[in-house]
Specification:
This protein is an all-alpha fold and 157 residues long. It is built from five helices and no strands.
Length: 157
Amino acid sequence: MQGDRMVIRELNKNLGLLLVTINQYFLHARILKNWGLEELGEYFFKQSIVEMKAADDIIERVLLLEGLPNLQELGKLFIGETAEEIISCDLAKEREKHTALVEAIAVCEEKQDYVSRDLLSKLKDTNEEHTDWLETQQELVAAMGVANYLQSGAQED
């Protein structure tokens, strides 16, 4: 089934952001683990897997639309040097992804590709949940202080 070129372009744009995010979260997970922050590192590791599955869904959709998934155009990773910076960097990446998802959903609506729109809407929901989690972590650091926050470990939902 031939897909609209603009939809495929938007899907590839979001794919690129996911690929960067996978690497960013994976590296942050390993950095945190190396620092002895096992629980927080495990959370970011699991999040990298969630992002990988989302990337796989987009790849499959692009292929179904007879497009070529672009795994070459990768953006910049935001790497934190402290736990606070890691949370801030990942929040910045989630906000970047949110903007791209909203734009892509609008293109899918315009081109009447409702299956791609639904896929991107699910990814947007996941993005918003993770953004909320990251914002909560920032609030906890502000309320508790970074030392107490790090001693308490990651705050799972």
